[in-house]
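Field log, afternoon session.

UNIT: design team B
ACTIVITY: writing a sequence onto a fixed backbone
BACKBONE:
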């Protein structure tokens, strides 16, 4: 009796795998398309609810409110895709401001002080990454410890007193306060960062390893990917971008406050998750994360224009995050059932 080939052919396997990833890609794009539709719907509704919503002043204010945070969201998204999370970004941003501000007040050139400050943030991320990759701590615990250390250092350096940096040179203040053809320079920096990072995340081979590691760490390791190096790189990227954002804030406000950024990490994580980054790893996009933080900013602006209490704003943001995480879990469960 002839043996019947029960295993699918390599061509069929390739098509099946390709179809699976195409469906995942379509799902991700669906999340982004849904966010765009929600944002458009809010724009239409608010255009009737408030005459001030569609003004250039309000549009610029909204973009300024999430542009600097959006830079941090990029790093957080990459880290979540790889399967981690960083609770220290708000504290690291504050530490970057404090270190650079203190060095400037001691007589150092602000540009050099900023580079040293960002380097310190990168080194902090490197040490955090070593505790994850060498010791085996989860990024949640490691970043929680880094958050406390960064806050403590900020308080120690400043003695709890804000640093006044109004003597910063105009060329440095231009980063956070300048405009190019009427467009704030911060927004231009934001767009440059997201365009470059989105392209690299979608097309660069090194960044594709982030998805492979987050999707199945064991399989990625067996295929020759150094997963510890990928994790370490994602953590360092996240803290470096947080440090860079902290310098932008320092340039914008001309001060370094030791309690800056408290709770900011929750807004960053919420934006990434709302944008489609799965807390289980392996999924996410820069575009989706930016749409997520844009949605949160638009909701906050809308509630302010409608004279809604600030307490309701936190409640609504929390409800949006809960809904996004619930949808992510439901979709993950469905994919698991379909795979089995």
């Amino acid at each position: 009796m002839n043996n019947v080939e029960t295993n699918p052919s390599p061509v069929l396997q390739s098509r099946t795998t390709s179809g699976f990833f195409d469906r995942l890609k379509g799902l991700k794009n669906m999340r982004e398309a849904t966010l765009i539709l929600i944002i458009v719907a809010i724009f239409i509704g608010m255009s009737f609810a408030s005459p001030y919503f569609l003004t250039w002043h309000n549009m610029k204010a909204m973009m300024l409110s999430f542009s600097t945070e959006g830079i941090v969201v990029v790093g957080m998204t990459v880290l979540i895709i790889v399967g981690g999370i960083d609770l220290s970004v708000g504290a690291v941003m504050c530490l970057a401001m404090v270190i650079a501000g203190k060095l400037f007040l001691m007589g150092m050139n602000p540009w050099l002080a900023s580079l040293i400050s960002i380097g310190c943030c990168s080194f902090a991320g490197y040490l955090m990454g070593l505790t994850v990759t060498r010791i085996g701590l989860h990024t949640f615990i490691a970043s929680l410890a880094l958050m406390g250390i960064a806050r403590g250092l900020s308080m120690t350096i400043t003695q709890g007193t804000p640093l006044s940096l109004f003597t910063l040179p105009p060329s440095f203040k231009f980063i956070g306060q300048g405009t190019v053809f009427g467009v704030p320079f911060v927004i231009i920096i934001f767009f440059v960062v997201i365009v470059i990072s989105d392209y690299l995340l979608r097309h660069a081979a090194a960044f594709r390893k982030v998805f492979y590691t987050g999707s199945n760490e064991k399989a990625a390791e067996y295929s020759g990917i150094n997963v510890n190096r990928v994790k370490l790189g994602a953590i360092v990227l996240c803290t470096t971008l947080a440090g860079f954002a902290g310098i932008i804030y320092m340039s914008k406000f001309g001060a370094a406050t030791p309690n800056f950024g408290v709770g900011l990490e929750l807004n960053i994580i919420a934006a990434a998750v709302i944008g489609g980054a799965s807390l289980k790893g392996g999924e996410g996009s820069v575009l989706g994360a930016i749409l997520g933080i844009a949605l949160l900013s638009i909701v906050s602006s809308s509630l302010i224009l409608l004279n809604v209490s600030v307490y309701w704003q936190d409640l609504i943001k929390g409800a949006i995050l809960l809904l996004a995480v619930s949808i992510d879990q439901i979709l993950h469960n469905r994919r698991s059932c379909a795979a089995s």
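LOG NOTE: Confidence is low (pLDDT under 50) at residues 1-27.
NEXT ACTIVITY: expression trials, pending approval
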